């Protein structure tokens, strides 16, 4: 799909339709991406199941193919194998589309002693530097320079184990260093490691490949380097952010949606918030959920924080939920400096939201209803928020720049239209 066409696509949503049926949670994008990058660490086959069909997965597939990995997709399964002399460069063409491209840096350097990866630019939600990845690799003996916008990393004699203490928790930073450390000489200790379920999922794959890793899911991960890794088969965990997005949508409708494959274990904090504000999270069987409003939604103060606390990737969707609370809620964004771009768009639909605290704090006053209009999807999760808002608003909503949504939500129109929504994907010129 070419970029110009992508930018011309909109979603047309008919609001307040009755939604009833089953929504199935897909595999986690943020787990599939690092798991795919791990294919660089072996000459054997890596077979990944439950990989969502998303733009970001396509980007990672193209990037890995460009490096020299054969990527074969069959529905939600992907077979990956390094099959030729690798090209050790990840160019800006890929990195600009998706910051997670930086996940190839650690594996390339660990396996081949050389890597050139374009430095990601700032993105819509914030500056997002990768200084912590670079400093950690330097501690492991890498020589890193910047040249014409590229990170040139060298470790001709291999990486060595090191004690790394991240100043700040970083998800892809922890993943990059964990992958690099699997093939380093000696022991690496990562302190203040990210504890996200996606980090644990990657560790589980690496262990199947023969890596010696302990402590993933805690603040301290210990990795004893091994000389080679073998192939493995692995099933990607469910996407807790997609599940949380569906939970918000269910809470704002009649509660007739069954969310299949709901990862209760990764959403404990989020489920407690739902319960606190008057929304029941009902377990149906082992892995399904019904999310149902018990009473009028109560206001609450929430702030984003690293796992196991409230995820920044659900902040925009919860803001839509709190637009319907009886009273005033406060939402503080602590992870990214510019992740409230959905606020002006929600205001256009009649939401009463004010920003203060240098744009870090949103005060959300509950309103009776939202009204459909033309809004923009400003980033991935903001687009999910606009989609929920459009589905529950009066009248018709048009969401522009909708390509963001397809980075992270598998077959979203198909899934939602399957439970009674009316969402049409069109070109701007055709409406
Ligand atoms: C592909 C993937 O998994 N993406 C997720 C990952 O992004 P990502 O891994 O990029 O986010 P990080 O956890 O690294 O970022 C957390 C904070 O640390 C800062 N930072 C990070 C690295 C660094 O070298 N220097 C630095 O200052 C960032 O700017 C941000 O303020 O975690 C985020 C936080 O949960 C999620 O929103 C993203 O969906
Ligand atoms: C911010 C996100 O992704 P990425 O880190 O790939 O930009 C996200 O998934 O919400």
From TrEMBL:
InterPro entries linked: Enolpyruvate_Tfrase_dom (IPR001986), Enolpyruvate_Tfrase_sf (IPR036968), MurA_subfamily (IPR050068), RNA3'P_cycl/enolpyr_Trfase_a/b (IPR013792), UDP_GlcNAc_COvinyl_MurA (IPR005750)
Keywords of the record: Cell cycle, Cell division, Cell shape, Cell wall biogenesis/degradation, Cytoplasm, Peptidoglycan synthesis, Pyruvate, Transferase
A GO biological-process term: regulation of cell shape
GO cellular component: cytoplasm
Annotated CDD domains: UdpNAET
Pathway: Cell wall biogenesis; peptidoglycan biosynthesis
Binding site for UDP-N-acetyl-alpha-D-glucosamine: 99, 128-132, 313, 335
Active site per database record: 123
Keyword Cell wall biogenesis/degradation: yes
Single GO MF descriptor: UDP-N-acetylglucosamine 1-carboxyvinyltransferase activity
EC number(s) given by UniProt: 2.5.1.7
Location of 2-(S-cysteinyl)pyruvic acid O-phosphothioketal modifications: 123
Described function: Cell wall formation. Adds enolpyruvyl to UDP-N-acetylglucosamine.
Family of this protein: Belongs to the EPSP synthase family. MurA subfamily.
NCBIfam families from the UniProt entry: murA, PRK09369.1
The name this protein goes by in its record: UDP-N-acetylglucosamine 1-carboxyvinyltransferase
Lineage, opening ranks: Bacteria, Pseudomonadati, Aquificota, Aquificia, Aquificales
Name of encoding gene: murA
